[in-house]
C-alpha cells in the first residue's frame, strides 16, 4: 500500500501545486494554491507542502505559526478532485498534525483552522480528527475550529 507523505513546495514542484483543482462545487471553499503560494511571501514560520501519493502530488497544504496568536494554524488543505473520496484528506490532516507535533515548541498548545460553514464535509472530517468549533469565533465568514494537544 502506498502511503501519503508531505514534501516542501520548491521551484521544482510549484507548477504542479498550482495545477491541482478541487471540484467545481468546492471552488468557493478554499483559496487557489497559487494564491496560497503568493501569500507565503508574507508569512513567516509557514510551510507550503505538497501532499504526495507515491511520486504524484495529489494535494496541497499551508500551515505555520500565526502572527496574531503565535499558535499553529492550518490555513489551507486541499485534495485534487481526481483523488477525493478516498480517505486522503483525513490522512493528509493527520500528516500535518504529526509534522506540527514534531516541530512545535512546548508553548504551542493548539492547531487552529477555519472553513466555510456550509462545507459540511470538511466540518465532519475535522471533527473526526479532534477539532472542536470555537463558539462564536468566525473569521471572514468562516467557522474556526481548534485542536488542543
Automatic annotation (TrEMBL):
UniProt domain N-acetyltransferase: residue ranges: 4-149
Keyword hit for Ribonucleoprotein: no
Enzyme class (EC, first level): transferase
Keyword Transferase attached: yes
EC id: 2.3.-.-
Keywords linked to the UniProt accession: Acyltransferase, Transferase
GO molecular function: acyltransferase activity
Pfam families on file: Acetyltransf_1 (PF00583)
PANTHER family recorded: L-AMINO ACID N-ACETYLTRANSFERASE (PTHR43617), UPF0039 PROTEIN SLL0451 (PTHR43617:SF2)
Protein name: GNAT family N-acetyltransferase
Source organism per UniProt: Sporosarcina koreensis
Amino acid at each position: 500500500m502506498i502511503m501519503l507523505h508531505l514534501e516542501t513546495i520548491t521551484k521544482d514542484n510549484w507548477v504542479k501545486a498550482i495545477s491541482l483543482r478541487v471540484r467545481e462545487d468546492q471552488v468557493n471553499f478554499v483559496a487557489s494554491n497559487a494564491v496560497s503560494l503568493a501569500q507565503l511571501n508574507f508569512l513567516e514560520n509557514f510551510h507550503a507542502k505538497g501532499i504526495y501519493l507515491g511520486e504524484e502530488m495529489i494535494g496541497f497544504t499551508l500551515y505555520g505559526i500565526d502572527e496574531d496568536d503565535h499558535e499553529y494554524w492550518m490555513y489551507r488543505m486541499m485534495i485534487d478532485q481526481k483523488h477525493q473520496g478516498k480517505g486522503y484528506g483525513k490522512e493528509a490532516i493527520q500528516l500535518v498534525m504529526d509534522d506540527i507535533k514534531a516541530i512545535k515548541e512546548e508553548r504551542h498548545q493548539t492547531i487552529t483552522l477555519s472553513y466555510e460553514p456550509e462545507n459540511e464535509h470538511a466540518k465532519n472530517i475535522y471533527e473526526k480528527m479532534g477539532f472542536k468549533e470555537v463558539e462564536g469565533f468566525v473569521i471572514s465568514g468562516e467557522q474556526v475550529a481548534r485542536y488542543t494537544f
